[in-house]
Amino acid sequence: MSFSSQTKAELCSAKIEKKCCAVAECYGVLMYCNTYSPAEIRIITASDAFALRLPKLFRKAFSLSFDVQPSESAAGKRSFIIKERSKIAQIMDAFGADIENHISHHVNFGVLEEDCCRSAFVRGAFLSGGSVTDPEKRYHMELATPHHSVSREVYSLLLDMGFSPKETKRASNALLYFKQADAIADFFTSLGACTAAMNIMTAKVEKEMRNTITRQINCDSANADKTVMAAQAQLDAIRYIAREFGLDALPEPLKDAALLRITNPEASLADLAQLSYPPVSKSCLNHRFKKIMSFVPQDSQE
Ligand SMILES: [Zn+2]
Question: Residue 218 Cα, ligand 1 centroid: separation in angstroms?
Fold first, then answer.
């Protein structure tokens, strides 16, 4: 099951208790469904849980049933249809709209005065026109409706509820979306899908931890590369001196450093300093290698 379907299933586990909330949830569903017009209501869903919830929801809100309703055992995309004009008129009337003078949809905030009803409305909108991407892949949650005026009004509603969605358009749909894990998790928490919210935050923490580890590994290997390159340059210089002058030409401390490098070709400067006898500091050893390197004429260095 996709993360979106899981989240919808969790949202559908909320009991349909109060009639006010059932009406508000139906409202959200209709504003975000495939067709909501005086001629027809058509809700298409692939979510099993939502398909089971829809008939109960409409019965509780309006005491009516769908004219076309798939069987409970149906799978895949299913259509719930109402064509009977009196039923559509009754539904529109509940939202303060008139079937005879229908122009475009607007969200009637009068239906959504209670907090419980606002959450129910947004839940309906998400069940009908929403989707959320698996947080393992990326963070994206969206609500898509063909009614642009509705999208603008739901944008205000979400702002009022403390969310800050982004707006865009895709094909003929108006979209509201979130791209941040925290915002998506907060959104689902407020709708009662706490498992989905927790999964999003867990995915975020795991991703951040993986990034930190990767950064650490990259950093370690960059440092290791630097150590190897520095040691290589020192060995080149020592070889040059041995060939041109012989190592005995070096003052004692420089010769000791050169021998230490030859016997420990891959050691870091800090390790070499510890191996020195008598002990020397890392910066002192660094100074000695700089002197050794200065024996090499610039034009013979790469
Ligand atoms: Zn309510």
Answer: 54
d(CA 28, CA 81): 16
Distance 176 CA to ligand 1 centre (A): 23
Distance of CA 158 to the CA centre of its chain: 19
The alpha carbon of 57 and the centre of ligand 1 are apart by a number of angstroms equal to 13
Q: Are 164 and 248 members of one domain? A: no
Same-domain status, 160 and 242: no
The arrangement of strands across the sheet holding 130-132 comes to 130-132, 141-145, 173-178, 166-170
Q: Which pTM value belongs to this model?
A: 0.75
How confident is the chain (302 residues) per 10-residue block, as mean pLDDT? 95 94 96 94 95 96 95 90 96 91 85 92 97 95 95 96 95 95 95 94 92 88 86 93 92 92 90 88 93 83 49
- Asked whether residue 29 falls in the same domain as residue 99, the answer is yes
| 43 is a domain residue | yes
264 and 183, same structural domain? Answer: no
Ligand 1 centroid, distance to 98 Cα (angstroms): 23
